[in-house]
Amino acid sequence: MLKYNCLKAILCSMLFVVSSYSSAGYIVGGASTTITPQSNCWAWDSTCVADFRAALENPDYFGPDGIVKETITTVTLSEVTEESLSGVNMFIAPWVGDGDGFAFSSAVIDFFLNGGDLFLLQDDSAHDVLGTLLGMSTTGSDGSVSNGGAPLFDGPFGTASNVTQHYNVGQLSEAEILAKNGNIGGVNASGQITSAYWAAGEYAAGAGSLFIIADVDMIATTSNCGLPVCGGDYTNLNDNAIYGLNVFHFLRTSGGSSSPPGAPPATGVPEPASFMLLMLGLLGFVRRK
């Protein structure tokens, strides 16, 4: 009897873990304010990207009954290491200062090159260390509005036009993008490139998807530019918000893996739902005993 009770306990624990993993969906992680103080309000767990982060977890946007039929879970990482990154599908870096970002840059780049998806919201030459290490630095732009086509400006959340930049404004180099097999995303009224993107495997064999923007405030939400909303309005879905959510959708659907890069390989490993059915069957067998 004792061994059956122990087996039941083990099976129930495994069911709980698998159920939790299955319900988490696609997991997006970013560094905490504690380890990215140079990000100020643009840190992943601070106010300027809070609306974007909430939109990713809004079931009307991402969920079984949402515009995109997949649940998104966001997490804050108190440290960015190989171990912590093994539990996420995507790492997002909003306006990470060069000094802060360099400390964990090796772990992030290894994560990306091994299939993790990477979302870089840069802005200026003091907040572009991760992009620079990947070959794409940020220089100043004239701040004019940006436009483009699918998949970033035209996607499941609608069509965005005249996406605005604010405060420090930047551009990327066409030569640097093309040298890394990238695609030009947004171009402003002066022909300056404001974003670039890569599907999984385009930057390098085995790498995840990548997006680099030259101004975090094209996606963030602030109120100090003289307009009611500066950047994305994720309640009313203005052009900047449509752009931001389309960008995320591209990264997700063009990504390196449906499970965290640190998870066991998919080959020969049951999907969570199938594994749960197996566990339920075993639990029923034990109960009959």
From TrEMBL:
Source organism, top-level taxon: Bacteria
**Keywords of this entry:** Signal
**Range of residues in the leader sequence:** 1-24
Classification via InterPro entries = Ice-binding_C
A Pfam short name: PEP-CTERM
Q: Domain named Ice-binding protein C-terminal: which ranges? A: 269-288
- UniProt name for this protein: PEP-CTERM protein-sorting domain-containing protein/MYXO-CTERM domain-containing protein
Q: Which organism is it from?
A: Thalassotalea agarivorans
